[in-house]
Write a structure and sequence with these properties.
Elements lengths: L9 E4 L17 E4 L7 E3 L14 H23 L3 E7 L2 E6 L5 E8 L1 E7 L2 H14 L10 E3 L2 E4 L7
Parallel strand pairs: 6-8, 7-9
Antiparallel strand pairs: 1-2, 2-3, 4-7, 5-6
Helix pairs in contact: 1-2
């Protein structure tokens, strides 16, 4: 069964400093990302190395965040269906992008490092559930670079974790 889901966002450039794009250093990279029905907008820019504002989200960080969020949500679904009771989940994701000679670039890999705290369930099954979660992640299935996983399972009642 195939279901189609449509998504829409709007992006508004807010970096016109009065002369538009009259020169490469004459304009800001700031922009706002919005979606209908969302309470908050995202303040975006380019990475600092590309003359952006380091305090705003850049597209590369948002791509990495999307991969991490998608795996989290897929994992919670898989865990629930397998009887694994997750009580905590954190991830320290990293990604590598390489610039090309023509000024473009592409991601070459991403690594997700989820630490999952479980209150019930078999830790080995909880660890293996990451494989199924990665297969269910829509975002990971949509990128053309490898997304690696280095998960760790922690038992909630383990005194070593206190």
């Amino acid at each position: 069964m195939h279901h189609r889901h449509e998504y829409a966002v709007s992006v508004e450039w807010t970096g016109n400093r009065g002369t538009g794009t009259s020169g490469y250093r004459d304009y800001g990279r700031d922009h706002i990302v919005r979606a209908e029905g969302k309470l908050h907008e995202l303040a975006g820019s380019s990475d600092r190395v590309f003359h952006g504002d380091r305090e705003r989200w850049n597209p590369e960080e948002l791509l990495l965040a999307a991969l991490s969020q998608c795996h989290l949500l897929s994992y919670l679904h898989v865990a629930s269906s397998r009887g694994i009771v997750v009580v905590g989940y954190t991830d320290e994701a990293t990604g590598t992008m390489e610039q090309t000679a023509n000024g473009g670039g592409h991601f070459t890999e991403a690594t997700l490092r989820p630490v999952v705290t479980i209150a019930a369930g078999d830790p080995a099954v909880a660890l293996e559930a990451h494989h199924e979660a990665s297969e269910k992640c829509f975002i990971a299935a949509s990128v053309n670079f490898p997304v690696h996983h280095e998960p760790r399972i922690v038992l909630a009642d383990d005194p070593a974790n206190a």
